[in-house]
Design goal:
Rossmann fold; alpha/beta; 6-stranded mixed beta sheet; 17 helices; 2 domains; 35% helix; ATP hydrolysis activity; Ribose transport system ATP-binding protein
C-alpha cells in the first residue's frame, strides 16, 4: 500500500479551448507508491489533465508540485526528463523503428558519437522481460500486433526511470494473461515507491489494482475516494452525477416502416463484433459508448474506410462498401471524428471543400465561383463563421471546420444514410443547435442517421433510439423517451443494464 508522502499535487488546474472550458479548477493529489485511478465519462477532462501533466498542453491557471517542487514542463520531453511518463491509449511509438530503438529513443547508450547497439538491445530486452514480452527487440514496431505494441509502450516507460507513470486504458488491447502480467509490473513499480495514475472505464480493474480514485465530471473534480471502502456503484454515481441535468428528448414520433440500413454483422477481428442494428428512413439512431467501445470502427467499416467483414442491407439490397468511393455511390456519407485528417483539405478554401463531393472532381480544377454558388445555402444554414468562402478551411476554428464537413454532404445531396462521428466536438452550444437542426432536417427528408457521440445528453435529446457499444459489441438498446439517462449511462460505463 502507498505511504502518505505526496508525490504529485495539481491544484486549481484550468484549461480553456475556443468555445469550451475543458478543465475548471481541477485538483489531483497522488501519493508515492500509489496506484491512483483517474475516472470520468468521455469529455470529463481526463486526457486534457494528463496532457498538462506531460507537458503537451500548458494550463491557463493552477499550480503543480512534483515531490514538493514547482513543476511546469514546457514540452513532453521536459516532462519525461522530470520523471513523468505517459502511455497514451493512442500509442506514441514510431512504427518504422525497431522495438529497441523506440524504447531508448534519445537515450541510447553511446561510445562517443556511436550508439552501443548491443548495450541498447540488452537494456531493451530487460525492459521487455519485465512486462512479460517475448518478441525480439529487433522487430520493427509496425510488424507487432496491437497487444505487443501496448507492452512495448509500457516497457518504454520503465526505461525512462519515471517517478510517475500514467497508463491510459492499458487493458484496451490486452488479453487476460497479458493484463495480469501488467498488474504484476504495476505492483512492483509501486513497491519501489513509484506512482501510477491508472485510467480505465472497467470498474473491476479499478477495484483490483487501485488504492484511491479521483473522479472528474464536466471538467471539475467530483470526488476523491478510498477504494478499500468504496463500491463501484458509488464511483459510477460520481461519474454520471445523480442530479445530472437532462435535455428533453424531441417530441416527434418515432419513424416506422422497413429499415433503410440493416446491419446483420460488422466484424473486425479482435476489435468489433456488432450485430442487429437497424435504421429507418427519417430515424436517428445514437451510438453510445466509452472510448474504445467501437463506435468509430463501426462507422468507418460501414463506409468502407477500413477492412472489415460487413453483412448489411441498404433498402433491402446487400451493401458492399469496398471503399469510401463505393459507399458514396451507394448513398452513404460520413462526417468523421478526425476532420483534419479525413474530412478536409486544409490548404483549400471553404467553398472548394464544401463542393468537392457534389462536383466529383479535383477541387483545384473547380472554378471558384461554382463552389461558392452551390455551397452558399448549406454554409449559411449551418452558420459557418469565416472571412468568406475563399478563406482557407485550415484557418477556421475546429467547430467551423466540422460544419464544413457536414456542408460537403448537404451540398451533394442524394444521401440515404448519414454517418456522424462526434459531430459536435469543438462546437459551442449555438453551433451544436445549428448542426442538429440540419441533421433533423435531413432526417425529415428521409435520410437514415447513425450518430456516434460521447455526449450522452445530446443523444437523449436528438436520437430516436440509442444503441450502447461496449468493448466492440452492442450490448443494449434504449428508447430515450422512456429510459432515464442514468440507466443508459450506467450501461455505457459498466457494459450491463442495472
Amino acid at each position: 500500500m502507498s505511504d502518505t508522502t505526496e508525490r504529485l499535487h495539481m491544484s486549481g488546474i484550468v484549461k480553456r479551448f475556443p468555445g469550451t472550458v475543458a478543465l475548471d479548477g481541477v485538483d489531483l493529489s497522488v501519493r508515492a507508491g500509489e496506484v491512483h485511478c483517474l475516472l470520468g465519462e468521455n469529455g470529463a477532462g481526463k486526457s486534457t489533465l494528463m496532457k498538462i501533466l506531460a507537458g503537451s498542453y500548458q494550463p491557463d491557471e493552477g499550480t503543480i508540485l512534483l515531490d514538493g517542487e514547482p513543476y511546469r514542463p514546457a514540452t513532453p520531453h521536459a516532462g519525461l526528463a522530470a520523471g513523468i511518463a505517459v502511455i497514451y491509449q493512442e500509442l506514441d511509438l514510431l512504427p518504422d523503428l525497431t522495438v529497441a530503438q523506440n524504447l531508448l529513443l534519445g537515450r541510447a547508450p553511446r561510445l562517443g558519437p556511436f550508439v552501443r547497439r548491443a548495450r541498447r538491445a540488452g537494456l531493451a530486452r530487460e525492459a521487455l522481460d519485465r512486462v512479460g514480452a517475448n518478441f525480439p527487440v529487433t522487430t520493427p514496431v509496425r510488424e507487432l500486433p496491437i497487444a505487443a505494441r501496448q507492452l512495448t509502450a509500457i516497457a518504454k516507460a520503465l526505461t525512462a526511470d519515471a517517478r510517475v507513470i500514467v497508463m491510459d486504458e492499458p487493458s484496451a488491447t490486452l488479453g487476460e494473461s497479458e493484463l495480469a502480467r501488467v498488474f504484476e509490473v504495476i505492483r512492483s513499480l509501486t513497491a519501489e515507491g513509484r506512482s501510477v495514475i491508472f485510467i480505465s472505464h472497467r470498474m473491476e480493474e479499478v477495484m483490483e489494482i487501485g488504492h484511491r480514485a479521483t473522479v472528474l465530471r464536466d471538467g471539475r473534480t467530483a470526488g476523491v475516494f478510498d477504494l478499500s471502502s468504496t463500491g463501484p456503484g458509488e464511483l459510477v454515481a460520481a461519474m454520471i452525477g445523480e442530479a445530472k441535468e437532462l435535455v428533453r428528448p424531441t417530441a416527434h414520433p418515432a419513424p416506422e416502416g422497413e429499415p433503410r440500413l440493416s446491419v446483420e454483422r460488422v466484424h473486425v477481428p479482435g476489435l468489433l463484433d456488432v450485430r442487429g442494428i437497424e435504421v429507418r428512413p427519417g430515424e436517428i439512431v445514437g451510438l453510445a459508448g466509452l472510448g474504445g467501445a467501437g463506435r468509430t470502427t463501426l462507422l468507418r467499416a460501414l463506409f468502407g474506410d477500413i477492412k472489415a467483414q460487413v453483412t448489411a442491407r441498404l433498402d433491402g439490397v446487400p451493401l458492399r462498401p469496398g471503399s469510401p468511393a463505393a459507399a458514396v455511390r451507394a448513398g452513404l456519407a460520413l462526417v468523421p471524428e478526425s476532420r483534419k485528417e479525413q474530412g478536409l483539405m486544409l490548404g483549400l478554401s471553404v467553398s472548394r471543400n464544401a463542393a468537392i463531393a457534389a462536383l466529383g472532381r479535383p477541387p483545384w480544377l473547380m472554378p471558384g465561383r461554382t463552389g461558392r454558388r452551390i455551397t452558399a445555402d448549406a454554409l449559411t444554414a449551418l452558420g459557418v463563421k469565416s472571412a468568406g468562402p475563399g478563406q482557407l478551411v485550415g484557418q477556421l476554428s475546429g467547430g467551423n471546420q466540422q460544419k464544413v464537413v457536414l456542408a460537403k454532404w448537404i451540398t451533394r445531396g442524394r444521401i440515404r444514410v448519414l454517418l456522424l462521428d462526434e459531430p459536435t466536438r469543438g462546437l459551442d452550444v449555438g453551433a451544436k443547435a445549428d448542426l442538429y437542426r440540419q441533421v433533423r432536417h435531413l432526417a425529415g427528408q428521409g435520410v437514415a442517421v447513425l450518430l456516434a457521440s460521447s455526449e450522452l445528453n445530446e443523444l437523449t435529446a436528438n436520437a430516436d433510439r440509442i444503441q450502447v457499444l461496449y468493448e466492440g459489441r452492442n450490448v443494449a438498446g434504449f428508447d430515450p423517451r422512456v429510459s432515464p439517462e442514468s440507466v443508459i449511462a450506467h450501461t455505457v460505463i459498466t457494459g450491463a443494464t442495472p
